[in-house]
Structure formats: C-alpha cells, structure tokens
C-alpha cells in the first residue's frame, strides 16, 4: 500500500530497497480502481472521512467548507502515486508528497498534471529532504513497510509544525489481520503478493510507545473494519486496521 521506501546508503535509513522495488513495480496501475491498488481505492474514502473530521476539529474549521486546508501546508509521507495528495490539494493545501520509489513519484506527478494540480512530489529518504513546518503530516499504511519505525516517526515529528496535526494509519498485528489482510487478501488477489509482512504490523500500544519516543502524543485510534454489508468502514473494532491522530508533546 501507500509507503515510504527506497534505496539509501545511510546507516540510519528507514527505506527498505525491496519494499521500494515492490511498490515501484505497481506504479503504472496505481490509479486504476480495478488494478493492483484496488484495495487502496476502496480504503481512501474511509480514511478521508476520518481525516476531514480530524482536520475540522483540530483547526476549528466549518464542515461545509470545501477547502478546509486553504493557506496550510500538508505532507504525505509514503504517498505512492498520490491517492491522498490529490484530495488534500483539492481541500486547499499546498501539498508535498514523498515516496521511496521514483516510479511512484513519476506516476504521481503525471497524474497530478492531468488533473491540473500543483503538488510538490519528491523521491527519497524523508529525513534527508529537510522538510519542516507542515500544518498537516500524514503517513497512511506506511510504517509497517519501513526498516526503522522509531526513526521514521522521529522524521515525521520533525516535519510537523508546533501546533500541527499528524494522522497515521496501519494494520494491526492480530490473528484476524493475518488471516484476512495477508493470507486471504493475497491469495485471492485483492492485494499483490508480498505486499505485507504481518510481523511488521505495529499494535496500537506499540505505536503509542514509538510515538512517545518521537515526542508525539497519540489520541485514541479508530478502527477500519470490514463487513459484507458495510464494506470498509470506521469502527470501534481495531483488529484489522486503525487510524489515529497525533500531536507534538
């Protein structure tokens, strides 16, 4: 899924070259809702609903305003081909998207161009790009793909403005997530094989501890659950996937 992974010679890198190569190969299909990223297309509206509420709450916005991020800067770390960056730009933000795979950045830039959106896309290690002062920092379905979770969260925290909002999401390491998100989803072709390593999914408690080490305070997470009737939806059930807001301590 959306991830921040690419080759780096730094001994303190967060990027896994194998992950970068895996997701880079999917770049051409990223915007195809029936392609290899189909699950992300289904997940995106659920994530955006959570984000819009969090943005209005944090910045004191009006839910009727179609551009709640006007005058604000937003960073999407692990942006893939821009599925989140483009909605953020339409909300009025000056958006920067970072990804490890140059192929993803090329696809993201090309698609944004066809949409008439000016988005600053960059490939590389997040911590080497000198990005700071963002009102909104997002990293969704990314932390399970990095080599050093503590360092990655520290890099995200460094990019966040003192009064900014951070939004994180990732799969939870549970038996249901292993059965549904990894084994069933990959065997049934819902996500490409090799996308997930279940052992790298952080639990909410683990993510909270990592965030504290990076100088962040996490709020209570919301679950992203699935049911035959509702499909993917926000829930109190954290067993598959969860999304959470954070702030600098």
From TrEMBL:
Under InterPro entries, the record lists: SAM-dependent_MTases_sf, UbiG_MeTrfase
Does this entry carry the keyword Iron-sulfur?
Answer: no
Protein's GO biological process: methylation
Pathway connected to this protein: Cofactor biosynthesis; ubiquinone biosynthesis
Q: What Gene Ontology molecular-function terms does this entry list?
A: 2-polyprenyl-6-hydroxyphenol methylase activity; 3-demethylubiquinol 3-O-methyltransferase activity; polyprenyldihydroxybenzoate methyltransferase activity
Q: What class of enzyme is it?
A: transferase
Whether Transferase counts among this entry's keywords is yes
| Enzyme Commission code(s) on record | 2.1.1.222, 2.1.1.64
Q: Which reaction does it catalyse?
A: a 3-(all-trans-polyprenyl)benzene-1,2-diol + S-adenosyl-L-methionine = a 2-methoxy-6-(all-trans-polyprenyl)phenol + S-adenosyl-L-homocysteine + H(+); a 3-demethylubiquinol + S-adenosyl-L-methionine = a ubiquinol + S-adenosyl-L-homocysteine + H(+)
Quote the record's binding site residues for S-adenosyl-L-methionine: 47, 78, 99, 140
Keywords, alphabetical: Methyltransferase, S-adenosyl-L-methionine, Transferase, Ubiquinone, Ubiquinone biosynthesis
CDD domains found in the cross-reference section: AdoMet_MTases (cd02440)
Protein function? O-methyltransferase that catalyzes the 2 O-methylation steps in the ubiquinone biosynthetic pathway.
Q: Which HAMAP family match?
A: UbiG (MF_00472)
The entry sums up its family as follows: Belongs to the methyltransferase superfamily. UbiG/COQ3 family.
Q: What is this protein called?
A: Ubiquinone biosynthesis O-methyltransferase
Originating species: Novosphingobium barchaimii LL02
């Amino acid at each position: 899924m959306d991830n921040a992974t690419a080759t780096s010679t730094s001994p303190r890198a967060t990027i896994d070259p194998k992950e970068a190569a895996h997701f880079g190969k999917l770049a051409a299909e990223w915007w195809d809702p029936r392609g290899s990223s189909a699950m992300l297309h289904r997940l995106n509206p659920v994530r955006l609903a959570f984000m819009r509420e969090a943005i209005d709450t944090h910045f004191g916005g009006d839910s009727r305003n179609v551009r709640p991020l006007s005058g604000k800067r937003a960073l999407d770390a692990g942006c893939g081909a821009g599925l989140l960056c483009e909605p953020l730009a339409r909300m009025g933000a000056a958006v920067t998207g970072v990804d490890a795979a140059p192929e993803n950045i090329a696809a993201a830039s090309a698609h944004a161009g066809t949409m008439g959106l000016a988005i600053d896309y960059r490939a590389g290690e997040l911590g080497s790009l000198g990005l700071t002062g963002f009102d909104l920092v997002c990293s969704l379905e990314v932390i399970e793909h990095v080599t050093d979770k503590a360092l990655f969260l520290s890099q995200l925290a460094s990019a966040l403005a003192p009064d900014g909002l951070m939004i994180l999401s990732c799969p939870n390491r549970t038996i249901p997530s292993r059965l549904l998100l990894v084994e069933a989803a990959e065997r049934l072709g819902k996500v490409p094989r090799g996308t997930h390593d279940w052992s790298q999914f952080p639990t909410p408690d683990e993510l909270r501890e990592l965030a504290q080490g990076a100088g962040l305070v996490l709020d209570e997470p919301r679950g992203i659950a699935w049911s035959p009737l509702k499909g993917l939806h926000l829930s109190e059930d954290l067993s598959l996937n969860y999304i959470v807001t954070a702030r600098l301590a």
